[in-house]
C-alpha cells in the first residue's frame, strides 16, 4: 500500500494493538464448539473508528470492490475488517436488503479472539454475531445458523465442508451466494490445495 501516513502514526497503532496482536495462542482459553458473542460491555455499542492509513486501505472495499489489505503486524487489520463489515451491513439494512457476512480464519483460537476482541464489541448490539469452531458443524445446523445470524466467524474448514455437500444433495449444504460479504483472515494462505484456495474455487464458479 502506497502513500501511508508517517511512521509515527503506525508506531502509535502498533502500541495500541500490542496486547491483542502479541497474545499467544497458548494464552487463549480453549474454544468451545459453539461460541456466541457475550455481553461483557456496556449496552451502548461503540462505533469502530479508523486511523487515516486504515481508512486509506479500507476505501476500495467501502466502495464495494474486492481488495487485499496488506499492513504490518499490529496495525489493526482486523479493526479495518470490522469497520468494512459494519459499513456493509448498515448499507444493506438501509436499502432493505439482506446482508450476511462470513469471516474465515485458518486457526481455531482466532475464532474467539476475533469475536471477543473485535467483532463482538463493535457489532453484537446491532447485528447477531456468532463464532463457530471445533465440532460445531456436527452439533448445529450450519444452514440454520446462517439464517439466524448476520455475522458468522468460523474456521474455513467448516464452510468448505458445507460447500462440498452441495454436490451430495445433503440438507446441510450451503451455497456461497448466501453471503453478501466474505472476509478471509491471513489470506496469504490461499495457495495450492489449502482450504482457502478450495473455497475460492467455489467463488469463481
From TrEMBL:
Residues 16-52 have a biased composition (Basic and acidic residues). It holds the Pfam family ResIII. PROSITE patterns: HELICASE_ATP_BIND_1. This is Helicase ATP-binding domain-containing protein. It comes from Micrurus carvalhoi. One of its GO terms (molecular function) is ATP binding. GO terms for biological process: antiviral innate immune response; MDA-5 signaling pathway. The lineage of its organism: Eukaryota, Metazoa, Chordata, Craniata, Vertebrata. Residues 1-52 are annotated as: Disordered. InterPro entries: Helicase/UvrB_N, Helicase_ATP-bd, P-loop_NTPase, RLR_Helicase. GO terms for cellular component: cytoplasm. Residues 58-205 form the Helicase ATP-binding domain. SUPFAM superfamilies: P-loop containing nucleoside triphosphate hydrolases. It comes from the Eukaryota.
Amino acid at each position: 500500500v502506497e502513500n501511508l501516513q508517517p511512521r509515527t502514526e503506525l508506531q502509535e497503532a502498533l502500541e495500541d494493538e500490542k496486547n491483542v496482536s502479541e497474545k499467544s495462542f497458548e494464552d487463549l482459553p480453549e474454544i468451545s464448539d459453539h461460541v456466541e458473542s457475550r455481553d461483557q460491555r456496556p449496552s451502548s455499542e461503540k462505533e469502530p473508528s479508523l486511523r487515516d492509513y486504515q481508512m486509506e486501505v479500507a476505501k476500495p472495499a467501502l466502495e464495494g470492490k474486492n481488495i487485499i489489505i496488506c499492513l504490518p503486524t499490529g496495525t489493526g487489520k482486523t479493526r479495518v475488517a470490522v469497520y468494512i463489515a459494519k459499513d456493509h451491513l448498515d448499507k444493506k439494512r438501509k436499502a432493505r436488503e439482506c446482508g450476511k457476512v462470513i469471516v474465515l480464519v485458518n486457526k481455531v483460537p482466532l475464532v474467539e479472539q476475533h469475536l471477543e476482541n473485535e467483532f463482538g464489541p463493535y457489532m453484537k448490539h446491532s447485528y447477531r454475531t456468532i463464532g463457530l469452531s471445533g465440532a460445531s458443524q456436527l452439533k448445529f445446523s450450519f444452514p440454520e445458523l446462517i439464517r439466524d445470524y448476520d455475522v458468522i466467524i468460523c474456521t474455513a474448514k467448516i464452510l468448505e465442508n458445507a460447500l462440498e455437500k452441495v454436490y451430495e444433495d445433503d440438507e446441510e449444504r450451503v451455497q456461497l451466494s448466501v453471503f453478501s460479504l466474505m472476509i478471509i483472515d491471513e489470506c496469504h494462505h490461499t495457495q495450492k490445495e489449502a482450504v482457502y484456495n478450495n473455497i475460492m474455487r467455489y467463488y469463481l464458479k
